[in-house]
Amino acid sequence: MTRSLLVLAATTWLVAASAHAGEQAASGVDEPPSRALLDALSRVMAAPDGFEDLFDAQVWLLDMQSRLARRQPKAYPSRPRRLALLERIHTEARRAGLPPELVLALIDVESRFQPAAVSSAGALGLMQVMPFWKAEIGRQQDDLHDIDTNLRYGCTILAHYLQREQGDWTRALARYNGSLGRTIYPEQVMQAWFTRWWVDH
């Protein structure tokens, strides 16, 4: 499917007005977290930071910071603040093997880029990560309002679900949100991706 068709399809989807809280399934809600996911989370929480390709990252940062300025001018009024946030998003998305623009779209839908966001279900931070994950991997000390920590959890969880669903973004995003079997949340994220954060590579 071409990008234009994807954009057309995305703009016709039904989109709810309010942001959704990420409700990754906890034990007893959907299914227990798999050993593979818990191992992945444990491993990446100790991994080093850094861009793989600094030049490409800088080009991306300059583009995305202008988009973020239009999207959230009050929350991120200064260019250095926008660049710092975007650098973290880019790093964690690439570490997890995810398109950084897709992660931006998910954050846009989940928290509207508010690091202190808390959902009615108790999900926290930019990517609205459920606190039960800390207990599952034995890292109760982790602060899910910390941007780097939140992004690392969220990106790792989403990447695991994408692998589990064999590249099916709709099912992976629904699992991330705890809404497997429903499509409204994946459609919201995909619409944000194609209409606000898409980049031709």
What's a concise summary of this model?
Belongs to the transglycosylase Slt family. This protein has nine helices and no strands.
What does this protein structure show overall?
The protein is mainly alpha-helical and 201 residues long. It has a single domain, classed as Orthogonal Bundle (Lysozyme), CATH 1.10.530. It is 57% helix and 0% strand. The chain has 9 helices and no strands. The chain is globular and about 40 Å long. The two termini are 16 Å apart. Belongs to the transglycosylase Slt family. InterPro entries: Lysozyme-like_dom_sf, Transglycosylase_SLT_dom_1. Keywords: Signal.
Q: Note the beta-strand portion.
A: under 5%
Named at the architecture level, the CATH assignment is Orthogonal Bundle
User: Which sheet architecture does the biggest sheet show?
Assistant: none
Helix content: 55-70%
End-to-end span in angstroms?
16 Å
Oligomer kind: single chain
Structural class: mainly alpha
Which class in CATH terms? Mainly Alpha
Compute the number of strand runs.
0
Work out the count of structural domains.
1
> Radius of gyration, rounded?
16 Å
Instruction: Write down the CATH topology.
Output: Lysozyme
The chain-level mean pLDDT equals 82
Regions with little confidence, pLDDT below 50 for 5+ residues? 1-23
**Helix segment tally:** 9
Order of SSEs, N→C?
A: HHHHHHHHH
**Shape label:** globular
Protein name: Transglycosylase SLT domain-containing protein
Family: Belongs to the transglycosylase Slt family.
Organism: Salinicola lusitanus
Keywords: Signal
